[in-house]
């Protein structure tokens, strides 16, 4: 599909009112396609997408986290977000984490196989202190650099600050 196909789909999404789930796994989408999809969904107040996934599109890259964060800020219907292996770095993870702090709608987040490093892991885990809706989080070790410190930090958050996480997929 690539960025061109994602841009074509984005034109359709600007007017769609019935799509509930969009999952585009291994579609060779890059940053341009990610931005087009996010902007289209953000600009359509009548679309009710509950699940948004672009897993295994590593060319979305480090800046893709910014577009996904903007999407989550404005679209309150997404409850399941799958952005595994999208090339998102710690900066993108922190932007997503910031939105998660104030967005009570997401209940499933799949963020594994990105390069979010310890700083990004901490941003996501800090969001769990105030986000009481998230019940499933996937942050696999591969490329995320989820250290022993990260696991201890998560355990502290779960013990003292968050009792809604039911599933945590970790290293």
Q: Which strand-content bin applies to the residues?
A: 5-15%
* Series of H and E elements: HEHEHEHEHEHE
Measured distance between first and last alpha carbons: 32 Å
Summed up, the helix count is 6
Which key terms come to mind for this protein?
single chain, 171 residues, alpha/beta, 6-stranded parallel sheet, 6 strands, 44% helix, 11% strand, globular
What does this entry look like structurally?
This protein is α/β, with parallel strands linked by helices and 171 residues long. The chain is built from six helices and six strands. The chain has helices at residues 2-13, 31-43, 64-74, 90-102, 117-130, 148-160, and strands spanning 21-23, 51-53, 80-82, 108-110, 136-138, 167-169. It has a six-stranded parallel beta sheet with strand order 1-2-3-4-5-6, with no helix packed on it. Helix 3 links the parallel strand 2 (51-53) and strand 3. Helix 1 packs parallel to helix 2 (31-43), helix 2 (31-43) packs parallel to helix 3 and helix 5 packs parallel to helix 6. The longest helix has 14 residues, at 117-130. The protein is globular, with a radius of gyration of 15 Å. The chain starts with a helix and ends with a strand.
